[in-house]
Amino acid sequence: MKTRNGEGRPEGFPWLRCLGYGALAAAVGALFYRGVLVLTGYEIGLLALPVGLWVGWVVQRAAGRGGWRAQGLAAGFTYLAIVVTYAPDVAEELQRQAATVDRQAPSAKGERSGGVEATETAESSKRAPREADSGAIQAAGQFVVLVLSVPLLALGQGDLTGALFLVLGMLQAMVMNRRRTPRGSSERKP
User: Fold this and answer.
1) Residue 3's beta-bridge partner residues?
2) 174-190, pLDDT tens digit by residue?
3) How far apart are CA 51 and CA 79, in angstroms?
4) Which residue of 24, 63, 138, 148 is 20 to 30 Å from 109, comparing CA positions?
């Protein structure tokens, strides 16, 4: 295995290790953030800072060094750790809205004649599984996009502090992973 500077570390960036540990750190950070929200009933945006610190530290340990790759992963995982905590609230709101629409929709059953309805039902039962799978995938994709965009939507509603703390948490994770020069290897000559 090629090593760099005789340190015994591989020459390339340890993507898999950073992705695995970063995802685990983001999950722990999300549980912490959501737990405080559930226990107190308040969303405390300031908690994005310790989440960013935690995720940044874990990614830095996994990477073994800093740099733009580790910074990007740490910032991305911090964003995901905070944003994923909104998923239960978004799902609850979507279910509430769907129930409201279902109550308001008129019933259209029994308006067709028997022969036409039986033919259409047989044809639609052949298409139904494929369309249902396609619809479920599309709905899941829309849900993920909606959850990922919650901070931007909140910013549009005037929630500047939540967005500010999210950005500060991401910056904290990035600072933890800035490139550092090893001690004793400064470029200045005495």
Assistant:
1) 10
2) 998 888 766 666 555 55
3) 10
4) 138
pLDDT, tens digit (0-9, with 9 covering 90-100), for 128-141: 566 667 778 888 88
The SS3 call for residue 71 is helix
The three-class DSSP label of residue 3 is: strand
Q: How many CB atoms lie within 10 A of CB 64?
A: 14
| Selection from 179, 182, 143 nearest residue 66 by Cα | 179
The tokens describing 171, both together, are 């910056």
C-alpha to C-alpha distance for 115 and 13, rounded to whole angstroms:
66
Residue with tokens 């929200």: 37
**Bridge partners of 41?**
none
C-alpha separations of 71 from 56, 58, 67, 89 in Å: 8, 12, 6, 29
Global pTM reads 0.71
